[in-house]
Design brief:
This protein has about 170 residues and is an alpha+beta fold. The protein has 4 helices and 9 strands, in the order αβααββββαββββ. The protein has one domain.
Amino acid sequence: MLKKIALSILFLSSFSAMSADQVTSYAKKSGVNSCLTTVSDVEKFFAEGNNYGSWSFVAKEGADDQLVNATLELTFSNRSTMVDFTIAPTKDGSCSYTYTRTFYSEKSCMATTREDYMKNANYKTDINKNIAGFEDGAAKVLLMPAGSGCVVQKKEVGFRHNKQGS
């Protein structure tokens, strides 16, 4: 039931190509204007110059006042990375975002901590039993064992990233 309700209030789209404006174009066509610059900034940050596909969610009614959510699959020769991001207008006239980048490393989590992309990450905590939390500047990195490898997630929140419409 909840799934039916959610689908009735969302537009869904799915694209695949190299152009770094799939989500931005879809959001604009769906009536999003206020946070379009932030949508574009985040999409380009991850997708520009990469082979990727997207799946986006935008509200059918009042799209300009609602969340925009997208999942990107960045496809590389040796792996894929999944990026999920959400953009939201704020009461003060700005736009905030959050993203989670997820991929699998064939190395153990201990070996993964020695990778170049972890060089500035500092261990902070164990989340519970199996997931270790690191901080890398404003981002959080989570490592979770998966078979002989490691699932890596990098998360960041940008509060009041820019003014709406800018």
